[in-house]
Amino acid sequence: MEKRISLTQYLVEQQRKHGHIPGQLRLLLEVVARACKRIAISVNKGALGEVLGSAGSENVQGEVQKKLDIIANEVLIEANEWGGALAAMASEEMDSIHVVPNRYPQGEYLLLFDPLDGSSNIDVNVSIGTIFSVLRKLGDHESVTERDFMQPGTRQAAAGYCVYGPQTTLVLTVGDGVAMFTLDREQGSWVLTAENVRIPEDTKEFAINMSNKRHWDAPVTRYIDECLAGTEGPRGKDFNMRWIASMVADVHRILSRGGVFLYPWDKREPDKPGKLRLMYEANPMAFLVEQAGGAATNGRERILDLQPSKLHERVSVVLGSKNEVERVTAYHHEAR
Ligand code: P6P
Predict the structure, then answer these.
(1) Is there a binding annotation on residue 117?
(2) pLDDT per residue over 113-171, tens digit each?
(3) Is residue 255 a part of any domain in this protein?
(4) 275 carries a ligand binding annotation
(5) For residue 70, is it within any domain?
(6) I need a surface site. Which of 75, 85, 167, 183 has the fewest CB within 10 A?
(7) What global pTM score does this model have?
(8) Does a structural domain hold residue 199?
(9) CA-to-CA distance for 73 and 84, rounded, in angstroms?
């Protein structure tokens, strides 16, 4: 079997091949990967590690925090604040940004993350994950504020996720395609197991929480009804449905074999554009999906083009196989 390469060697080769990865970014990505390894160890302990259940607190979203949410957040903060690559961090679990303390050197990057996405699955042993996005700090002003983070997803320098499932897999892009690394637990190292990942443009598999059907907007209802009609309907083919309720796991399946994922606006919270967060869920996943030849919109516009105004703002998400995303988006425009 050919010799597999490590994450470090992959990043060094990317740096050498394209100059695509400045030294600071390579260091940052290796630190994030190491933090994900530590989170994987805590996640894998489950009940043995006293890490299941709720922490008895709520996050900025008003969601009950699980113990592992807080552990994962602390691991990412502690791993990243001393390295010198970052100016500040933002997390789903923290109300405001965390500026790198003065006792450490400040770098030129901003790191955003959902430290443990899919928390409702933690206690029932279903795959969960860490999602991260890297932006560059704009300008050379000293004091970093939340305004520095208000950049569209097209400005991401890197994005990725780690899925804690049957395998522990790190998926990464620096704008030159998508690579996947599987954690070799015996060596404790990330090993390249796929690169230049491609999402098929067509699919027969959709992912949506069907229990919200009565709350959807007409274009989404039309699209899903056509999928459900199968060969007897206008699509002329049968569809399959998957919903893991863990975005990382659903997106990983789509990167691995195609599919379309929808978490659209619905009338349960009419004043909110959607459930998922733009900055540290939709943007990194949209960057990965586009780099793999897929598409990602909020039903009408390209997610990566959206100009954020708030750190924790939400968005509707339709992503995956290009032709399906384009169909859903076309239905939204027709319904205008
Ligand atoms: P629902 C997990 O809480 C999450 O943010 C995503 O990972 C997932 O896709 C979605 O919410 C699941 O939401 O409403 O189906 O529980």
Answers:
(1) yes
(2) 999 999 889 889 999 999 999 999 987 777 899 999 999 999 999 999 999 999 999 99
(3) yes
(4) yes
(5) yes
(6) 167
(7) 0.96
(8) no
(9) 19
Q: What is the spatial distance between Cα 291 and Cα 251, in angstroms, rounded to a whole number?
A: 13
Q: Looking at ligand 1, which residue's alpha carbon is closest to its atom 10?
A: 245
Q: Is 45 annotated as a binding residue?
A: no
The CA distance from 82 to 34, in Å, is 14
141 in the same domain as 15:
yes
Q: What is the pLDDT of residue 20?
A: 66
118 torsion bin: left (phi>0), alpha (psi -120 to 50), beta (else) = left
Using CB distances shorter than 6 Å, the residues near ligand 1 are 117-118, 120, 209, 245-247, 263, 275-276
Q: Percent of the chain, pLDDT > 90? A: 85
Contacts of 292 (CB under 8 A, 6+ apart): 177, 178, 197, 198, 199, 255
Half-sphere exposure in the Cβ direction for 80 (13 Å, CA): 36
Return the closest-CA partner of residue 329 out of 304, 308, 305, 302.
Answer: 302
Contact present, 133 and 279 (Cβ < 8 Å): yes
Residues 305, 246 share a domain: yes
Note down the domain range covering 306. 205-334
Q: End-to-end distance of the chain based on CA atoms, in angstroms?
A: 55
Q: What is the pLDDT of residues 53-67, one digit of tens each?
A: 888 888 877 888 888
Of all protein residues, the one whose alpha carbon is nearest to atom 16 of ligand 1 is: 245
Strand 240-241 relative to strand 205-207: parallel, antiparallel, unpaired?
parallel
Give the containing element (helix H, strand E) for 322: helix 322-334
Q: Are strands 54-58 and 276-277 parallel, antiparallel or unpaired?
A: unpaired
The CATH number of the domain holding residue 280 is 3.40.190.80
The predicted structure's pLDDT at residue 1: 67
The answer on 140 and 96 residing in a single domain is yes
Q: Give, using CA atoms, the residue closest to atom 1 of ligand 1.
A: 245
